[in-house]
């Protein structure tokens, strides 16, 4: 079946009948493909913390649907207290993963909409409708972004990716992988080197799974091989996703900065694919919290201990790449090129 015809259940969706969230549990991939049902905000927070649901745009959708979940489960009859409860649920969900701005963006988008309600019933309906709107817009956003990005690809090229910025990080299609899909659909001959992306292996487990299912040529490499393959002339360009883009830096999965430095040294184009919702242009790198995750993610591989108990572990989930190492930022409203200050003014006007 061609890619465009394959209709998978979306990575995350609102089930109107049972008023709950349905999502693919990404911790089980690639071995098991299981759809999970989430009925409470606490369940959703746990799923986000465990990266059952992950990826910036998917977190935006999850945040919006978390507000819908809080709304439909509420028994509060007073509108003022109902809205206060929703704001508290939103703050709780925002605390689960602080680096990706999309999570807060999705939550705040629904809260802004429900604040216009005149009754609790209207607020509940608005929350669900806005959450679904966030999800549906994501698909169109990814395809538009892919449409712009594909033109940056040579007709025959080998591309390096890091982590997973694919359909599993969005509602479907993907951002960085969405550009690859759009380039392949446009008839370009694209080969992919996917970095495994230690410690949680989003590259080997998720990106390789996605691309193999689409019949796209993908080879798994350890993160540590990327620079050597660049030195050997095996990489034509690098494309990654993003979790937050500030005035001066791109926050993305740990290891992204390493690839940006190596690409810059080898004069290889380094591209970031991200929707406008990932931009946080009121802040600079130094103001952003970089999520640190559990020691166990590095200290164990399954049941196998990899480091002595008395050795410290520092497990950053993200890093920051300065914009002067980024050759282009591909968005759903076009491709941004340096100097970014002028492009960012345009972004701000589209959002105001
Ligand atoms: C399309 S953005 C995906 C972005 O999110 C990933 O982080 P995580 O797997 O921890 O949610 C990674 O930074 C990807 O680039």
From TrEMBL:
GO terms for molecular function: S-methyl-5-thioribose-1-phosphate isomerase activity; translation initiation factor activity. The active site is at residue 243. Its EC number is 5.3.1.23. Substrate binds at residues 54-56, 97, 202, 252-253. GO terms for biological process: L-methionine salvage from methylthioadenosine. It catalyses: 5-(methylsulfanyl)-alpha-D-ribose 1-phosphate = 5-(methylsulfanyl)-D-ribulose 1-phosphate. Pfam families: IF-2B. The record marks 163 as: Transition state stabilizer. Keywords: Amino-acid biosynthesis, Initiation factor, Isomerase, Methionine biosynthesis, Protein biosynthesis. Gene3D superfamilies: translation initiation factor eif-2b, domain 1 (1.20.120.420), Translation initiation factor eif-2b, domain 2 (3.40.50.10470). Belongs to the EIF-2B alpha/beta/delta subunits family. MtnA subfamily. Catalyzes the interconversion of methylthioribose-1-phosphate (MTR-1-P) into methylthioribulose-1-phosphate (MTRu-1-P). This is Putative methylthioribose-1-phosphate isomerase. It comes from Methanoculleus thermophilus.
